[in-house]
Design a protein that fits this description.
α1 packs parallel to α5. The protein has two domains: 187 residues, 2-Layer Sandwich (Beta-Lactamase), CATH 3.30.450.40; 159 residues, Heat Shock Protein 90 (2-Layer Sandwich), CATH 3.30.565.10. A hairpin with a 4-residue loop joins β10 and β11. Strands 3-2-1-6-5-4 form a six-stranded antiparallel sheet, sandwiched between helices. It is an alpha+beta fold. 29% of the residues are buried. The chain contains ten helices and 13 strands.
């Protein structure tokens, strides 16, 4: 009799629980579907999916990690929580609970994270967050391989369980499909942009030829004119002539650099890659070229361009053109942020113990807020400049990565910004962080 009573009492509870679970699943499906129909970007889709996931299971924190096949890493793409990992933080995709989920393609419920040997304690140590319980789910293409992992941590009331897995699986599936669709849409847009850039690049290359010819003719004309000038002091004539030659040389050098960049665009449109062309490279020459190109802009704003220790750096194996682009972007961006009377300094020295160059690009500018600083080297990079895209820092990061280097940034509002770059002496060696 007692058994019957127990059965009668527990049966309605089971039905109620199933009903509640179905309601939560339907609500989750409705909310994520509404988000998808808003035609959000990849970044917005990830953020929206993660927010919904945390709300429906009442989780304290969560993150989305996306796979980076070229380095075989899982990268923190977006995180929510008081002590969330910085976007761009990565670890090998064979490690951690997330690595296990990514490898097997199956969700995992861990109700005692500290007791699970797979847990990456270093992530908690770096952020100061304490993970208690966790659900990790694969973000998978339809009947395909995972593209990442969704994690939800620390249920506010009770513990995360298999009922929560069922609800989160719906969100993870919809989110993964949406990410893939958004990526395909972005790739299609980029392909169209590349086609248009190819046409523009062809025209720009043709238009630059008269510029180069005109600069050469202008130099000859200036030389003849100054030679015939009477009555002016020779020193003044020489100084003016040297200034004209400097401007003409700058025009010629940058016209040639534009031609090189246009060729890269054309190669990209043809589906060709442009691997780095490594050769003996003098950092002093790269820095001098950048300063020569931007000197007039800096002078107009009363900004000093300084270098320290660069002349003492040994030659490295590098793609000089790409290094120029990287440092040009950093200095050019800094000029826009440094007030009159300030300075931009490039410092360099050699780490003899690991044969790595350490280079700093330091300015006395306005600095940047934490949210901009932390997004600089991620796909969601932001720009403070009107009309800015954040593309300049992406170019810098791509160049450093191509040289197997590392780049970090320190910045404080009202104080300034410092970019720290470590480069190996040769491309087949890897610097230690």
């Amino acid at each position: 009799m007692t058994t019957n009573i127990d059965t009668i009492e527990t049966y309605p509870m089971t039905i109620s629980r199933q009903h509640d679970r179905r309601e939560r699943e339907l609500d989750a499906a409705r909310r994520i579907s509404e988000a998808l129909f808003q035609h959000l970007s990849v970044e917005e889709l990830v953020e929206q999916g993660l927010k919904i996931a945390l709300e429906v299971v009442n989780g304290q924190a969560g993150c989305v990690l996306l796979a980076k096949p070229e380095t075989k890493e899982l990268v923190f793409y977006h995180a929510i929580g008081d002590k969330a990992p910085q976007p761009g933080t990565a670890f090998p995709w064979t490690e951690g609970i997330a690595g296990s989920v990514f490898a097997k393609g199956e969700p995992i419920v861990v109700q005692d994270v500290k007791g699970d040997q797979r847990h990456l304690e270093k992530i908690d140590q770096n952020t100061g967050f304490t993970t208690q319980d966790m659900i990790a789910l694969p973000l998978k293409r339809w009947e395909g391989h995972p593209i990442g992992v969704l994690e939800v941590m620390n249920k506010r009331e009770g513990q995360l369980d298999h009922d929560d897995v069922a609800i989160l699986s719906i969100i993870a599936s919809f989110t993964a499909i949406a990410i893939e669709q958004a990526r395909l849409f972005q790739e299609a847009k980029l392909a169209e942009v590349a086609r248009i850039l190819g046409d523009i690049g062809h025209d720009v290359k043709n238009l630059l030829m008269p510029v180069l010819c005109g600069a050469s003719l202008l130099k000859d004309e200036i030389d003849e004119t100054y030679a015939a000038l009477p009555g002016l002091p020779a020193v003044k004539i020489k100084a003016s002539q040297d200034t004209c030659h400097e401007v003409i040389q700058m025009l010629s050098n940058n016209a040639k650099r534009i031609q090189d960049r246009v060729k890269e665009i054309a190669d990209c449109v043809k589906g060709l890659s442009s691997p780095p062309r490594f050769a003996s490279c003098k950092m002093a020459h790269v820095v001098a070229s950048v300063f020569d190109t931007l000197k007039l802009m800096a002078d107009e704003k009363d900004i000093r361009l300084n270098q320290e220790g660069i002349q003492n750096i040994p030659d490295i194996q590098a793609d000089e053109g790409r290094l120029f682009n990287a440092f040009y972007n950093l200095v050019n961006n800094a000029i826009a942020e440094v007030p009159p009377g300030g300075c931009i300094t490039i410092l360099g020295h050699l780490h003899p113990e690991n044969q790595t160059l350490h280079i700093e690009v330091k300015d006395t500018g306005r600095g940047m807020p934490a949210e901009i600083r932390d997004s600089l080297f991620t796909t969601s990079a932001m720009s403070k400049k009107k009309g800015g895209t954040g593309l300049g820092t992406k170019i810098v990061k791509d160049v450093v990565d191509a040289h197997h280097g590392k780049i970090t940034v320190e910045s404080e509002v009202g104080i300034g910004t410092t970019f720290n770059i470590n480069l190996p002496l040769a491309p087949d060696s890897h610097p230690t962080p």
